[in-house]
Design a protein that fits this description.
The protein is mainly α. The protein is 70% helix and 0% strand. The protein has 3 domains: 1-123 and 307-343, no CATH class; 124-240, no CATH class; 242-290.
Length: 343
């Protein structure tokens, strides 16, 4: 399946962990002979574990629901495309190619095109707004990805224009209604020179180390009253629908066969209460232990992926190192076979 990346990854990780047990089991009976995996097949499994790890961690990162993640969407796509392109490049330069590489290349091509389809649809302005309104990012991320100056300026102007139309202008109109015609005439010239909140914010040096931008915007509401409202609205957009799906799972467990006549308002109150408890004290720990509904992505999201850039780069390097090591081992094996005496 082109998009069953996570289920494939989890299955293979479990398989590698139980490798010795699986080998013993398939050798325990003669009718299991066809199920015995060769060393080459286990090599293919290990490669896929390395290759799919960034996809798995990316999914966990983007489905978080207690901290904003939408600003990581562009970065995620770029990282996954780079990972696939690096593997393609290594395959092309390998001197010894295992038989299964052709199958892997077909799979990677299918993934690449599927991811491109997703990326081509991921063009709403919210992605760019989230990056620009993140105090640790602003224009840095676009420059880091070597986007053209024209493209960066296009995103900046687009966000500035939305702020002026949807937030700044509304406040300006409210102020105008409070002022007399004479006051408006006196201040008309000076109003044009006032810098907007967005322009003032974007020109300030970025704040390093901010992991939860919502907390930062809360502290600067007095400085950027209108822009902070735009930031809150923007960061409220989830990167994926996983959080919503989890809520449906919770409600499905609440409305059981023995509780099938609950009023909708009661269901809503119970869900809100569970959510409140899940974020507080020892009761939260107890609920996490006894409930298999609460997804692990909800727990400790703020700390788990704080160094996501570094983790992705390390995972990508691990895959490259594994492929290089594999090629060297195969080359040594082939040399050894050539040196063996002919009987």
């Amino acid at each position: 399946m082109e998009i069953r990346w996570n289920s494939t990854y989890c299955m293979l990780v479990r398989g590698v962990y139980l490798k010795e047990a699986i080998n013993m089991w398939v050798k325990s009976r003669k009718d299991y002979d066809t199920l015995i995996l060769s060393g080459e097949e286990w090599g293919k499994v290990e490669f896929l574990v390395h290759f799919l790890a960034p996809f798995y961690l990316t999914t966990l990162r983007l489905q978080a629901s207690t901290v904003p993640t939408l600003q990581q969407t562009f970065e995620t796509y770029e990282g996954l495309f780079n990972s696939m392109d690096n593997v393609r490049g290594i395959f092309q330069n390998m001197r010894i190619r295992p038989d299964w590489i052709q199958d892997i290349e077909i799979g990677i091509d299918a993934m690449w095109y599927k991811l491109r389809d997703y990326y081509s649809e991921a063009k709403p302005y919210a992605y760019g707004d989230d990056i620009l309104l993140h105090p640790s990012e602003k224009l840095r991320w676009f420059k880091k990805q070597e986007w053209s100056a024209e493209k960066i300026e296009e995103y900046r102007e687009s966000t500035s224009r939305r702020f002026d139309l949807e937030y700044s202008k509304v406040v300006a109109l409210q102020e105008i209604r409070k002022r007399s015609y004479e006051e408006m005439e006196e201040d008309s010239d000076s109003d044009d020179d006032i810098q907007s909140e967005f322009e003032s914010y974007i020109q300030q040096q970025r704040k390093r180390g901010i992991e939860n931008p919502l907390n930062w915007w809360k502290t600067v509401e007095g400085i950027y009253p209108q822009l902070s409202k735009m930031a809150k609205d923007t960061f409220a957009v989830p990167a994926t629908g996983s959080g919503v799906e989890r809520e449906f799972s919770i409600s499905g467990a609440i409305v059981s066969k023995s509780r099938n006549r609950l009023d909708p308002e009661t269901i809503s109150d119970i869900m809100q209460y569970k959510r409140w408890l899940s974020r507080r004290g020892a009761i939260a720990n107890y609920l996490r232990e006894v409930s298999d509904i609460e997804d692990t992505a909800i727990q400790n999201e703020e700390d788990t992926f704080s160094n996501s850039d570094l983790e992705d780069e390390e995972l990508n390097q691990d895959l490259i190192d594994w492929l290089i090591k594999w090629e060297k081992e195969e080359e040594l094996k082939s040399r050894g076979k050539r040196l063996e005496p002919v009987s």
